[in-house]
Amino acid sequence: MRLTPLAASLPATVPFVGPEAQERALRRPFVARIGANESVFGPSPKAIAAMAAAASEVWMYADPELHDLKAALAAHHGVRPQNITVGEGIDGILGNLVRLLVGPGTPVVTSAGAYPTFNYHVAGFGGVLQTVPYRRDQEDPEALLLATRKAGAPLVYLANPDNPMGTWHSGRAISEMIGRLPGGAVLCLDEAYADFAPDDAIPPLDPAEPRVIRMRTFSKAHGMAGARIGYAIGHPELIAAFDRVRNHFGMNRMSVAGAIAALGDHAWLGHVREEVAAAKARIAEIAAANGLRTLLSATNFVAVDCGGDGRFATAVLDGLVRRGVFVRKPGVAPLDRCIRVSAGRPPDLDAFAAALPEALADANKSHS
Amino acid sequence: MRLTPLAASLPATVPFVGPEAQERALRRPFVARIGANESVFGPSPKAIAAMAAAASEVWMYADPELHDLKAALAAHHGVRPQNITVGEGIDGILGNLVRLLVGPGTPVVTSAGAYPTFNYHVAGFGGVLQTVPYRRDQEDPEALLLATRKAGAPLVYLANPDNPMGTWHSGRAISEMIGRLPGGAVLCLDEAYADFAPDDAIPPLDPAEPRVIRMRTFSKAHGMAGARIGYAIGHPELIAAFDRVRNHFGMNRMSVAGAIAALGDHAWLGHVREEVAAAKARIAEIAAANGLRTLLSATNFVAVDCGGDGRFATAVLDGLVRRGVFVRKPGVAPLDRCIRVSAGRPPDLDAFAAALPEALADANKSHS
């Protein structure tokens, strides 16, 4: 085989190791799966019923135009179907967005410690990543703007609310950032956690704005991570470009049916939001009981500051994983002093509460 | 937005229009959906049960390593998991294969009239397609070899059994072709229809052979097109390269569960094969009753020679579609004298039998 020079240059590393691989290494299942910001509260019962009903119809490909789902999403958001593209989770859409805008040598801007899968795609298409640091555990729009302008980058990434820290900016601050983007630059605004954020954190949708594309997903609040449905809202011209590169018959028929049902179940979304709010409060209590600070979060997870450096937090994380509690953590200093704990059900958080003091003790021992 | 020069150069056309778009244009559903080589006989009941049961667990991402599915596939085929990569249908895997081997200007060889989605991916990564004609309604290994050698192409595509004609080569002929490939060239051997083919049409699997990668799918005989699960079997080095570019969390949790269940249900596969054989015989009878010849097929569809040129066959197809019978046809002469009819249940083929004489009469009228 003769890989392209670009493919041959790519590392064999992957953005995230799955919890299943860790379970195989541990030779037992996790007691609590609160590491991937999945919604342990599950999908809407209506979505489950729709997916189960669609299982017997799965001999048919899904409609490659996703007409019904796009119509439902357009009505939901008050935009037109031409403003929406659907893909295999935000991860899949990010890959195609990068493919459309980034070639070998193209500069792309993001924050050091932000979503690794975005960086994976940028590297995968030969782009050159330029990073700016977080500022007080928040992504820094001013620094991102400056770097975008300086590099002449066609693409800049920001998540609001942020992952992995859970912090957020006001919608007004984001709108202002969009308004100040240099000509031709596009903001990839990752709003995977928008459903958990306060209303004033989300800028109004402007379907005529060419400088931003907004990523949404059924993986988080809708509890359908394994169904792989994300979508992006943007200017019709950029949205139409996805049709030049996407896998037109790539969507799952069961998932599409589930997404339409989930979108209509407002009560379930309200229920999940309440459960998440309660779980986040409990995570903060557990942390406080162990003398640890937590960051305010507009997502379904909480960054817990372990009070030391990255190595110390990694030792805490390892101690939790050894005790059957799956959590993850940021990879870049100074964010990496934290571990990231997803909202869990009471038994999940009981397991976290039981394991945390022991994990801290282990970490303190190995650092003394 | 600033599309890359490559993205800006791509056409807005798509490989296939879905039947749903046609139904929206017709303002009524098709009576018979026998155009996309889906398995109207459905998935295994065990697969349906597994997918329905997994619907409530879909809050979890699927294992990004697909450990259990790859283990099951490896056992089934007598290879190692390192020989297998899994993706969102063969379409998704073809995209990643092309991405690994093809850059701007790279020559790629296929047959004129073969699978358009492969060509879509080659264009999408800037490759330059070189085509050779079919020979007696079969892909022509000798001509493909010659073109590959002449062009210095790193990638050549052949489907066995073939789509859209349904014809096939012996496994011995394919093995011989692989053995004669020029150094560094890889044969993308699309075996989507292998489950319908006679045993001697499928060359033995050789997991140490670096010159071929074999595409398989749950979309055809397993009746799970809308579940989007394909896989490729090849040399561990080429298989490992997919991990550099694939969407690691791209697979659907319900589909993975369904695929494992389907793989174990040999009885259902036998049942589907019998139904398909009966349906193909009936399609040939219907064609013969209308004075039309059919091609022998090792797939789940039959190419029906409409007895005229491409325009005449298109008129026949349009007449069928107008009467609620969804079929497709090859796009390149001389293959395009045929329409392609997928195996259907008796009521599907009743609808085809009723519509065909009228469609032929219409086509004859418009051509006289």
TrEMBL record, chains A, B:
UniProt entry keywords in alphabetical sequence: Aminotransferase, Pyridoxal phosphate, Transferase
Keyword field contains Transit peptide: no
Pathway as given in its UniProt record: Amino-acid biosynthesis
Molecular function, one GO term: pyridoxal phosphate binding
Superkingdom of this protein's organism: Bacteria
Keyword Cell inner membrane: no
The protein's Enzyme Commission number: 2.6.1.9
Residue ranges occupied by any Aminotransferase class I/classII large domain in the UniProt entry: 35-356
Top-level class of the enzyme under EC nomenclature: transferase
InterPro entries from the UniProt entry: Aminotransferase_I/II_large, HistidinolP_aminotransfase, PyrdxlP-dep_Trfase, PyrdxlP-dep_Trfase_major, PyrdxlP-dep_Trfase_small
Family recorded in the similarity comment: Belongs to the class-II pyridoxal-phosphate-dependent aminotransferase family. Histidinol-phosphate aminotransferase subfamily.
PANTHER family for this protein: HISTIDINOL-PHOSPHATE AMINOTRANSFERASE 2 (PTHR43643), INDUCIBLE LYSINE DECARBOXYLASE (PTHR43643:SF2)
Protein name listed in UniProt: Histidinol-phosphate aminotransferase
